[in-house]
Amino acid sequence: xxxxxxxxxxxxxxxxxxxxxxxxxxxxxxxxxxxxxxxxxxxxxxxxxxxxxxxxxxxxxxxxxxxxxxxxxxxxxxxxxxxxxxxxxxxxxxxxxxxxxxxxxxxxxxxxxxxxxxxxxxxxxxxxxxxxxxxxxxxxxxxxxxxxxxxxxxxxxxxxxxxxxxxxxxxxxxxxxxxxxxxxxxxxxxxxxxxxxxxxxxxxxxxxxxxxxxxxxxxxxxxxxxxxxxxxxxxxxxxxxxxxxxxxxxxxxxxxxxxxxxxxxxxxxxxxxxxxxxxxxxxxxxxxxxxxxxxxxxxxxxxxxxxxxxxxxxxxxxxxxxxxxxxxxxxxxxxxxxxxxxxxxxxxxxxxxxxxxxxxxxxxxxxxxxxxxxxxxxxxxxxxxxxxxxxxxxxxxxxxxxxxxxxxxxxxxxxxxxxxxxxxxxxxxxxxxxxxxxxxxxxxxxxxxxxxxxxxxxxxxxxxxxxxxxxxxxxxxxxxxxxxxxxxxxxxxxxxxxxxxxxxxxxxxxxxxxxxxxxxxxxxxxxxxxxxxxxxxxxxxxxxxxxxxxxxxxxxxxxxxxxxxxxxxxxxxxxxxxxxxxxxxxxx
Length: 588
Description:
Distance between the termini: 58 Å
Order of helices and strands: HHHHEHHEHHHHHHHHHHHHHHH
Number of strands: 2
Shape: globular
Largest sheet: 2 strands, antiparallel
Number of helices: 21
Strand content: under 5%
């Protein structure tokens, strides 16, 4: 058509020749020496599809947040079974969409043109499965607990944990097999489905955090007040779960009740892990992978090799000591009403955390100094997973920053100042410093290229030996004493030398410099330390509620609200730091 428009007086035959010429020129251009560029997206406006899915997620998140927060108070005419009904409907819709994606979208021709090798690493998916298992156990405990009161409860309270268990199973399988997908069909439907999945996980997370906070508040009131005053406060203040009106006198009922509340932290972390992985999938919808810059890094996880065991041993000591402090804290604070035992438990808690945070801060500073001598280049390629990791580390740290600054203001402005106040002030200052230094260390480690010597060694092995050699005996069989397998026309003595060098290069261990060894020790120590700092507040050791300084300064309503809002982000920060430090350890 272009040739006919360009030559209006040309005959039909001439136009046919011009069409052939243009076709030949296009074919020659397709076989040119330049590599094929990234294919153009079929979308007219990529940001338009993203914007629509974001708006859908924002409205659903606001609706869920309104219902969850309203259902926590008695004076508002929103009940907890209204919240469960909304979450059940959202989870059912997500389950239907996931089945549609797995059975239809992902199997379309040309649906998945590439996979993001950085998305969904094996340690992240392994952590997701671990939290999913504990979430399923929690759902079993919930079903057993609510089934004991089916006569005085709404049916949705029994249906909700059943649907949640199915949702956890389906979503975990979906993220395990599809976390790396870069989908190129049904783009807008896929984006909306992923955003609905992300919003559902966040809504379940908000519901779990609110339920856990209300339960802990009721436990504190029950411990300090009589049964009559406690029931009166429930009528005028925070809502009790409707199960409180039913009797739970049997031993099996108490086991179910205490069990699923102890398992709430695992379900909370599962929802946040799943949300992060779903967000990366959403970013990869319609994305074309540049294979020249997006190389796949096959790094092996070697825990007990190439280390001095100093970081592991010191981290295990911190971990075991922290578990002992947690047990003593729970016994002396939550199970006793004596003020002296409470002061001893708080002193022990603060001293342990001050020592742990000081060591972690010094180690992070040392790691940042070692990076100054590291000769590895910075990885500047596009990586949505790393971008999300950095954003979550910086964003989740804001929760602990807020609690620390509120504590500092309350301690400095309050009088008198005792030993516990001094320890609390030191603890708050070190918490800010440790978060800052650890973020610097982790973010710099995530942006480093993998060691070049390993990559060169593996490439050299592949070039010389190929994939046919599986062991040393096979190599020695392929290299005869007098043949010319390696180099045609070379002398026999030279060939023997090359053969021995070949075998020696296979058997010789690869050396690791001192910088990489120290970085591995630092990463492992920080990883184990963050685990215990996640376990302690997640399973009840929360001095913010037991220290009277902040409660007296901000009041019984403002300070618990601040802690309930900010502390979940601080707990999530520790677990996300564990995943990021594991990646830094493997990349070192």
